[in-house]
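Consider this one:
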Amino acid sequence: MGSYLLFPSWERQQLPAQLEQTIRANLAYFQAAIAQYLEGEDRASEQVFESTIHRLRHQAALENANAEASAQRLFSEPRHIRGDIEPMMTLMLYVRSLFSAVTALAEHLKGVGGRVGGADRFVEIEQLSEAIAKVLNNLADALNQEQPLQPLPPLAEDLAMICDRIEQLHSTRLSEVTAHSTYTTPTLQAVRQQTPVATSLSRIVRAVTVMHSAVGRLR
């Protein structure tokens, strides 16, 4: 007890390591979820994927809870020790947003099975997912390993290309409806399958962009 009073272990010093673990856990969850899209019907085992997603979702949720608990302990520290907590709170908020968006993506892809992805996938989504993974890896490194924070890549531009593809699908479907085609067409199936993927990715890009800004302010 006396040694703690003389040399207290401040939460401000412990939190970066926890945040690194938290971001890496959410990254692993994202990569497993997007793999369902990228691999499509080529996936080896549906059960293996579901088991992996469940495990990684649980791990990410656990690390998110640990980070929030650490942040709460930070609040009890003296103001001159804890410093400006606004970037930390912003980071925590958007980690939760990232987790929520990845969960929505995973649930949608599980619901449609192997019908999304494979040969019909948007190649732009693979490019965007790789860029997102690189950003999250860099954020984790920058928080606890004193690695340089790299500039944010053009995630919004990559996302815009995907949104353009979705807009084209909707325009084609509108033409079908105008022509009194009420049947289920490949275009309608693509609209139903691809639109939620793009929506989730939009939320993920927003979360990662704000997280990058927050980490920059923390450093």
The helical segments are 2-6, 11-39, 46-75, 79-82, 86-112, 123-144, 155-178, 186-218. The CA atoms of residues 76 and 82 lie 9 Å apart. The longest helix spans residues 186-218. The two ends are 31 Å apart (CA to CA).
